[in-house]
Design goal:
Length: about 400
């Protein structure tokens, strides 16, 4: 039995079988590379689903985490903690949103968005508003309320859903105008729909959504869980669109691979989260927060948001050349910064498998979209190596 088969058998015996896992057991990782138990090396173009934006085991982050484990691990949010405050100070310096609520994951950060929206409307504005509107193709997490705003396929067997969540077609401003009623508390949007297939929002539509929200006293929320922390080419994807949401969520890359999420909001909105109104045991844990401070320091120092924008632009142009050279294989290449999608004209599993065999780890979403979310410090030569491999695999598939 191979090392992989042995581990798979153990996993199959004890873990809930919720994930369609890759046929790889990762033993270790360094920078942009993964290593399996048989010593094979893979180029990681997925970065733990947009989490490892500095690459794996970054030595400066590792040092800070290690030092922090000798200082303070956890005391709960009953106490002031320097690391948490320092990270909040760094986060509020990146945008117009000046208040932070820390939690542990993306879904939980979105829960905080929904909760603060309802509470603001009901307790501060004294309105009977509770409904949250989302857009088709979105993904906001796997808790009950994030399922209720998300894709229908993930709701199967989990009914009934919590009430007060509605979805309309992405891009249809007239439909949004019609859907907004006095019961509407907020609208939530991903600037680039990630899981949905790397669909950047049309900028005019996104601006129209913000304007409609403002006009109707509805809160405008942005989910930056996947797009955030520099991946789009700026700290936050809404900044690439010139938008100013009332609040936004983040998670994934913030603590360099340790579990952390956060909700950032305006001072005005923060009035709704008064004492006792919301909370979590682990949110803003000092180890995660210390890691987060170092991650942000490195991102700033190495100008990684800017680099992501430039590298992403280069990659899109490179993939478009493959599209032109191999007519009929690629329907569209899409993306923003280092959120990259290559939409094939056919189901992409054989292409994904062939690339994995060649040592390239990426993701297949919506059946046809090869999704790349590489570390923000990826070398151009690595993206070029992927492009060459992709072209080879597509040619072989066409032959
Ligand atoms: C845009 C977006 N929002 C929310 C989530 C949920 O985050 P988490 O899995 O940390 O709960 C994800 C996860 O992929 C995501 O991509």
């Amino acid at each position: 039995m191979s090392n992989f088969d042995k581990l798979k058998e153990r996993a199959d015996n004890v873990l809930c079988q919720t994930y369609a896992r890759y046929p790889i057991a990762v033993k270790s990782a360094k920078g942009g590379r993964l290593y399996d138990f048989d010593g094979n090396e893979y180029l990681d173009l997925l970065a733990g689903l947009a989490v490892m934006s500095l690459g794996h085991c970054h030595p400066e982050v590792a040092r800070v985490v290690s030092e922090q484990t000798h200082k303070l691990w956890h005391v709960s949010n009953l106490f002031y903690q320097e690391e948490q405050v320092a990270l909040a100070e760094k986060l509020v310096a990146t945008s117009h949103c000046k208040r932070v609520f820390f939690c542990n994951s993306g879904a939980e950060a979105n829960e905080a968005l929904f909760k603060i929206s309802r509470r603001y409307q009901q307790k501060i504005k004294h309105k009977d508003a509770h409904e949250v509107i989302s857009f088709s193709g979105c993904f906001h997490g796997r808790t009950m309320s994030t399922l209720a705003v998300g894709p229908e396929k993930y709701r199967e067997g989990f009914l009934p859903m919590p009430v007060g969540f509605t979805q309309i077609v992405r891009g249809d401003l007239a439909a949004l105008e019609k859907a907004i009623t006095p019961a509407t508390a907020a609208v939530i949007m991903e600037i680039v729909q990630g899981e949905g297939g790397i669909y950047p929002m049309d900028p005019e539509f996104a601006k129209g959504v913000q304007a409609l929200c403002r006009k109707n006293g509805v809160l405008f929320l942005v989910d930056e869980v996947q797009t955030g922390m520099g991946r789009s080419g700026k700290w936050w994807a809404f900044q690439r669109y010139g938008l100013e949401p009332d609040a936004f969520s983040l998670a994934k890359a913030v603590a360099g691979g340790l579990p952390m999420g956060a909700m950032l909001c305006s001072d005005e909105l923060a009035k709704a989260f008064d004492f006792g109104s919301h909370g979590t045991t682990f949110g803003g844990n000092p180890i995660c927060a210390a890691a987060g401070c170092k991650v942000m320091e490195i991102m700033e120092r190495d100008k990684l948001p800017q680099r992501a924008g430039e590298m992403g632009k280069w990659a899109l142009e490179r993939f478009a050349r493959i599209q032109a050279d191999l007519p009929g294989a690629i329907k569209e290449v899409r993306g923003l910064g280092l959120l990259l999608g290559i939409d094939l004209t056919f189901p992409g599993k054989p292409i994904w498998e062939a690339l994995l065999k060649k040592g390239f780890v990426l993701n297949l979403t919506q059946d046809t979209v090869l999704r790349l979310l590489p570390p923000l410090n990826i070398e151009r030569a690595d993206l070029e190596a992927f492009a060459v491999a992709l072209e080879e695999v597509l040619r072989a598939h066409q032959a």
